[in-house]
């Protein structure tokens, strides 16, 4: 067996967190090797944000992340902030805009973000090797990584292979497996930012409405999100639902307010007085998308005209519109999940540099860690921030 090539830092994963850790370590003069099994770096960045990459969020703060330790992300997010990343994007002349809720997107293409990262990595003399299959990782003083194209060793190893979401794009549980092998505990992974699926009566209502979108408040547990929701042929999706899905646990309900900020009972009663001859579906259609209005009127407002409906029928529908309790059967799983919740337990890592407390030289960053952001650029900011702090210490 040929002797392994020696580096100061080996990083597994050329995604957002791995590339950023590599850049930070390379800028400190460390000899950095990045290994990835994919044939292209940053594949998730390329498809993110509908191809425009929602690369950070102006309102980034630790309370927009889910983790068994809600304080863990604070140090990383403070040491490398959204403003630091925005400054980098500006230095590279990449035009961007705020779409909504502090979400920053490229005007052009996500490819510009990957090109920026690769240019920074080249300038920091990072050795990036794609299409390398990792076959073994061990440690005898230094870390040793075997691949189908040779062995490598270094005193520092950064696990940056992400979570389990979108296996089609090459996602694997490698970081989780290696962390476990070195004795680091895991918080059970599950899909996050994922469409919810339904069965029975609920699905019978939802399926024909596939494609209908509206503003709503989606609640799951104590979390509430006011954004758009979308009916799908399997249930519900759209930003509000994706956000709520990260807080949802099997067996629990989600509740929807389909007329946020409006008093539906008062509106329906007023319409009955003002337009007694109007059809219920027409009145509902002035408040909700027409196809949804028709489906709800057919089920809940029996009667050809508003005048035929007792107030209690209007009040009952209004209550449902404000507090529609639904029990998802499940989610669309890792195939459709934007992120993986859970991962390497933060209790085993230092929040200052994402280094394993009991395994000096081993770092875990990005989505592989039990830190998951809301929808809206938070997950990339965690990747940049956690990668950067690890790169300062590795
Ligand atoms: P990431 O998954 O980016 O990178 C992991 C790398 O490790 C990959 O290059 C992979 O090939 C490699 N790898 C995996 N297993 C390996 C193995 N066994 N051997 C070698 N290499 C291996 N977030 C956000 O903030 N804004 C957004 O707009 C979006 N949009 C979005 C859209 C879609 C469709 C998805 C699926 C996700 C998003 N996200 C997002 C989430 C975001 O993409 C995600 O949180 C980050 O990419 C995580 O960065 P990491 O570097 O941790 O993992």
UniProtKB/TrEMBL annotation:
Secretion signal, residue range per the UniProt entry: none
Q: Name one Pfam family in it.
A: HI0933_like
UniProt domain RsdA/BaiN/AoA(So)-like insert: residue ranges: 190-339
Please list the cofactors this protein needs: FAD
SUPFAM superfamilies to which the protein is assigned, alphabetical: FAD/NAD(P)-binding domain (SSF51905), HI0933 insert domain-like (SSF160996)
Q: Keywords on this record?
A: FAD, Flavoprotein, Membrane, Transmembrane, Transmembrane helix
**Taxonomic superkingdom:** Bacteria
RsdA/BaiN/AoA(So)-like Rossmann fold-like domain ranges (all copies): 8-392
Bilayer-crossing residues are: 6-25
Q: What is this protein called?
A: NAD(P)/FAD-dependent oxidoreductase
Give the organism, scientific name: Roseicella aquatilis
């Amino acid at each position: 067996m040929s002797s392994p090539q020696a580096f100061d830092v080996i990083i597994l994963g050329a995604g957002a967190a791995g590339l950023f850790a590599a850049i930070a370590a390379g800028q400190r003069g460390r000899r950095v090797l990045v290994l990835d099994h994919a044939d292209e770096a940053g594949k998730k960045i390329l498809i993110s944000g509908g191809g425009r990459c929602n690369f950070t969020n102006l309102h980034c703060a630790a309370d927009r992340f889910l983790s068994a330790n809600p304080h863990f992300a604070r140090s990383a997010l403070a040491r490398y902030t959204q403003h630091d990343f925005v400054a980098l994007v500006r230095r590279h002349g990449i035009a961007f805009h705020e779409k909504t809720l502090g979400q920053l997107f490229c005007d052009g293409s996500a490819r510009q973000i990957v090109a920026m990262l690769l240019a920074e990595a080249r300038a920091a003399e990072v050795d990036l090797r794609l299409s390398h299959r990792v076959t073994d990782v061990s440690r005898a003083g230094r870390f040793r990584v075997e691949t189908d194209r040779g062995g490598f060793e270094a005193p520092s190893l950064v696990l940056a292979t992400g979570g389990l979401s979108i296996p089609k794009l090459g996602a694997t549980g490698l970081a989780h497996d290696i962390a476990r092998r070195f004795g680091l505990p895991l918080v059970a992974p599950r899909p996050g930012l994922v469409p919810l699926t339904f069965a029975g009566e609920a699905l019978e209502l939802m399926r024909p409405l596939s494609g209908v979108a509206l503003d709503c408040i989606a609640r799951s547990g104590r979390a509430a999100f006011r954004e758009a929701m979308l009916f799908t042929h399997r249930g519900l999706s759209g930003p509000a639902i994706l956000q709520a899905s990260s807080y949802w646990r099997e067996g629990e309900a989600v509740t929807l307010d389909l007329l946020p900020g409006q008093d539906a009972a008062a509106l329906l009663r007023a319409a009955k007085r003002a337009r007694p001859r109007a059809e219920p579906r027409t009145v509902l259609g002035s408040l909700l998308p027409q196809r949804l209005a028709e489906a709800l009127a057919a089920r809940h407002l029996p009667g050809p005209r508003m005048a035929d409906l007792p107030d209690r029928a209007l009040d009952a529908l209004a209550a449902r519109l404000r507090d529609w309790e639904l029990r998802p059967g499940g989610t669309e799983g890792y195939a459709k999940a934007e992120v993986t919740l859970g991962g390497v337990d933060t209790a085993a890592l230092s929040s200052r540099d994402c280094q394993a407390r009991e395994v000096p030289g081993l770092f875990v960053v990005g989505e592989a860690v039990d830190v998951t952001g809301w929808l809206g650029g938070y997950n990339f900011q965690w990747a940049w921030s956690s990668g950067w702090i690890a790169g300062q210490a590795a």
